[in-house]
Amino acid sequence: MIYQNSLSFAIAQDNDDLLKDFRNQFLIPKHKGKDVIYLCGNSLGLQPKSAAQYIADQMNTWQNLAVEGWFQGDDPWLEYHKSLSASISKIVGARENEVSVMNSLTVNLHLLMVSFYKPNSKRFKIIMEGGAFPSDQYAMESQVKFHGFDPKDAIIEVFPREGELTLRTEDIVQTINNHAAELALVLFSGINYYTGQFFDLEAITQAAHKAGAYAGFDLAHAAGNVPLKLHEWGADFACWCSYKYMNSGPGGISGIFVHEKHFTDNQMNRFAGWWGYRADKRFLMAPGFDPAIGADGWQVSTSPILLLALFKASMAIFDAAGGIDALRKKSVALTAFFEFLINEINKGQAEDIFRIITPANPDIRGCQLSVVCGQNAKAIFKYLADNGVIGDWREPDVIRLSAVPLYNTFQDVYHAAKHLADALVAVK
Ligand SMILES: *Cc1c(COP(=O)(O)O)cnc(C)c1O
Question: What whole-number distance in Å separates Cα of residue 334 and Cα of residue 368?
Answer without folding.
Answer: 10
